[in-house]
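MODEL INPUT / OUTPUT PAIR
PAIR INDEX: 1
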Amino acid sequence: MAKIKVTKVRSAINRTQRQKRTLEALGLKKIGQVVEHDATPNILGMVSKISHLVSVEETK
C-alpha cells in the first residue's frame, strides 16, 4: 500500500471545529509536524477536507 506524508503548514485558529478535529484525527498538533499514513480512502478524504492547512507528498 502507498504511504503519504502529511505536514501541517497553517494554523487551526479561526477554523471550524470539524477541521480542528480532522487535524487531531490525523495526529497533527503543531505547525511543521509530519505524520505518515497509508493512502487509504478514509485518510485521503480527511486530507482533502483540510488541504488548505496541510501539504501532502507520496512516499514509497
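PAIR INDEX: 2
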Amino acid sequence: MHKYSSLLLGCLLAGLSASGWCAEADSAAVEKAIPAKGADIFAHVRPSVVALRTSLTDSDHWSSAGSGFQVDERGWAITNFHVVAEYLFGRDKYALHYRLADGQDGLADVIAVDVIDDLALVAPRKSLAREHVHSLGLPDISRLPAPAQGDSVFAIGNPLNLGVTITSGSYSGIVSGSFERQIHYTGVLNPGMSGGPAVDAQGHLVGVNVAHQVNAESVSFLVPIEHAVRLYQSAQKLSKPLGDFRAVITHQLDAEQARQSRLAFAKPWETEPFGNYRVPDILTDYSDCGAASNQSSDAPPPVERKIISCSFKTSTQPVDGEISSFVTYKYTLVQARKSSHLNAFQLAAAADPVFREGVSSPQSTTAAPQQCQDRLTYAGPRQDLPVRLLWCAQAYRDFPGIYDFQIAVSARKKNDAVLVTRLTLAGFNWQNALGFTQRLLEGIQ
C-alpha cells in the first residue's frame, strides 16, 4: 500500500538501514560533516538499515519486502506504510520479519502509522542488545538547513531483495501542488528501496524513499523527513503494537478529505469556456490537466469529441487496490460535425456511452456494492440549465464514513452540443461529496 499520486504511479517496496544523524544526542552533530563521497555516505548509513519482509506465518518464503532505518536506542525503525500494510491487514496469516545489517533477525510489530504520508514506525518484537542497535536517529528539523535545488542526495535501500545499495541523485525541490509536500528526487529508486533513508552529502536525513514515476527516467519521490519526525514524536507515549489500526486510518483519511474540501470550498470556483458552455476549474493548483480530441482530417468522425481531463497530483492508498484522497474530473463536449446533420436522438445516443463510461464499479472485497441515483435536475448559477445527474456512492468496508463517489452530469444546449461532466471523489465523506456536487452544478453554464 502506498500513497498515490497521479505522479506517484509506481510504488516501491524498499529496504534500508541508516546510521546517522541524531541532533537530540549531540547538538554539535548538526555542524559535523562527513566526506561527500558515495562510499563514505554508504558506510555511514549502512549499519542502521533494516530489511523488512512479510511472509505467511507457516512459510519462510517472503510475500513482500521493504526497508527501514533505526531511529532510537530501542531499534525502532521508520519505514513506509505500504511496506507493512499487508501484514497489518492480515495479522492472522502474515508475519513481519526484521533483519539488521549485522544479520540479527526476528519478528517485528507496527507501533504507529501515517497513511497520508505513507509512513510507519516499526519495533522489534524482542528487545535488542546494545551491540545490535545502530540508530541513525531523527534530526531536530528546526536546526537543519533546507536543501537547495541541485544539492546531492543519496538514497539507500534493498532493490529487488538483492542487498542494500546506494543511488545518487539531486534534490529537485518540493513537488508543486502536492498536498503532502512530496520531494522530487532526480535519481533512481527501484522496487525494494521504499522506506529507506535519503541523506544529503553531509549525512543529514532529507527524506524517506517512497516511489518512482514508472513512465519516466530518474523521476522519483521522497517523503520529507519532518513527517517521519512528527510520527515518531507522536508515538512516544505508545509502548504496545498498534491495536485498532483501522480506526486510526479512518481518522487520518477523514481529516485529509476534510482538509482538501476546505481548500476546495474556500473561494468560488472559476470557470473557463468550453464550446458553447462554461465549465468550473477545481483546485487547479493541485491538479494536472490535459486536453484531447478525436478530430481527424483523414477520416473525420460524424460525432466530434473534445475532452479536458484533470486529476489531483497526489493520492493515498489505504488498502491494496483502493485509492483515496484523490479527485479527478473530465469534461467531454460531444457534437455533430457540421456535415453530419445528426438529429437530437442520434446525438443523445452518441453522448450516452460517454455519460455512463466508468461510472459503475466492480465488486470489491474492500468496498460495499455501489448505490446510484439517476435523476433530472438543474445546473448553472441560476439553476436554469436542465441536466441529467447520475450520483453513485460506494462505502469502504474497513473505514466507516468514507466513500468513493462517481458523479456524471449531462447537459445539452440546442441539438448540436452535449456536455458530459464526470467527477470522481475517492475517499470522501457524504457531506463533502454533496458540497462538491453542488459547486459543480453551479459552475456548469
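PAIR 2 NOTE: The radius of gyration is 25 Å.
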